[in-house]
Prior knowledge:
CATH topology of the largest domain: Beta-Lactamase
Number of domains: 2
Distance between the termini: 41 Å
Structural class: alpha+beta
CATH architecture of the largest domain: 2-Layer Sandwich
Order of helices and strands: HHEEHHEHHHEEHHHHHH
CATH superfamily of the largest domain: GAF domain
Number of strands: 5
Number of helices: 13
Strand content: 5-15%
Helix content: 40-55%
Strand order of the largest sheet: 2-1-5-4-3
Low-confidence stretches: none
Radius of gyration: 20 Å
Amino acid sequence: MRLLTELPKFDDLVLRRRHALRSLSGLVDARAGIIIAARVQRRSPALGEPTIWGLTAEQQRRFEAFLKIMKPAHPAGPTINKRLAKLSVGQSIALRRQDLIAARQWYADEYVKTVREPCDIDAFVYGFHRADTAGLAYFLGMYRGWRKPVFGRREQRLIELFWTHASELLTFPGQSQTKHVIDHLPPRLGQVLDCLHAGMTTSQIADTLNLSPHTINDHVKRLHRRFGAHSRAELLARSRHNHNPSSGT
């Protein structure tokens, strides 16, 4: 699949995700898509920020609000969890709406009425990749518009194949992807990362590099995006294994 060879060219994780969602939407005739990580079996909030493509700003705010609390519950949740429990670590599966829940039950559910219909997303195919024994799953969702035709077997097989090979490229970077990100950091971002690993505060980094604290914060945000991190602690944890101080500091 050509898309798999294109993804590593994007150093920024968010841009890589958006490219994947935009490309996949054309392949499976989807209106919108999402990539996220979650401990699905605990019905816990999503881990980190989701990447959502294809929704309006208002629809995205509504969908993100649901992801933070996971209420009302997804009506197919129990069936999905049973399927995921059978997956071994490293396995992937793609599930369609019609394989999980009857149409009458779906359209009568509170979640569908309060989340899906206002967002104009209905039929879905979900790709799941079991990442560990504790229930962490990488999730890819592709959606069609409200009351549009359901996804077929072809689209289901395509999503499962794609997610088997691409899940770690589009979620939390693995060791090889982390090394690639570090090796291709611009010099200034490399210097900021060095300072963070040295335990410096924003003010100390600004003094060391002769930059403003505002500029340092902007650089740290760029590092977050490249590593798919959402805090400095998470950034340091993800970059520590492959980090070697650059020659610029």
